[in-house]
Each structure stands twice: as C-alpha cells, then as structure tokens.
Prior knowledge:
By secondary structure, the protein is α+β, with helices and mostly antiparallel strands. The protein has helices at 7-12, 17-21, 42-52, 61-67; strands at residues 5-6, 25-29, 32-35, 58-59, 79-82, 95-97. The strands form 2 sheets. Strands 1-3-2 form a 3-stranded antiparallel sheet. Strands 4-5-6 form a 3-stranded mixed sheet. Strand 2 (25-29) and strand 3 (32-35) form a beta hairpin. The radius of gyration is 14 Å and the shape is globular. 15% of the residues are buried.
Amino acid sequence: MPGPRTTADIRAAGATHWQLRQRRWRPVLRGVRVWHEEALTRLLVVRAAALTLPAGGAIGGRTAAWLHGADSTEQDAPVEVVLPREAAYAPRDGLRVR
Length: 98
C-alpha cells in the first residue's frame, strides 16, 4: 500500500474507523494517513499535502522549487501551498498557506 491516502479513500476501500485508529495507519496530516511500514520522507509529506488541496490549489514556494531539484528547503520545514482567494481550507499543522 504505497503512498499517502485520505481517510475517506481508506474508508471507501473497506477499512473501519477502528482500523484507521490502529498503529497500522499513521497520520501524516489531518485527513491523510500512510501505511505503518512506509518511511515518512519529505516527498511523502508533500504528496500528502497535495491530497488535501482544494480545486485550484498547488504546492508552491520553496517546496515547489525543491520538487524541481533546487536545494531550497529543510527537511522539517512546512510544506508551502498556494490557494485561490475563495478557497475554503482549514489550517493543518506542517503546512504554510499562501
């Protein structure tokens, strides 16, 4: 089960609320989990952030530069995202919204 998944997708695949609360599914961001055997890398967290974005949202700033090969961000820096002005988006730990 590689990569981050939204809790909604995991539930749609048949997992119960109780199964999601077990240690087999680790939370990455609010609403996104990863299988317990998967390493929590910077790229995985960026992919998890992308799953939470509303229409018109994108990975931006130094995080986007890092994705394109620039040595522009620290491993534990917040993931930068860019949203349309009208987007309704709840803040999440580990993300910086612009």
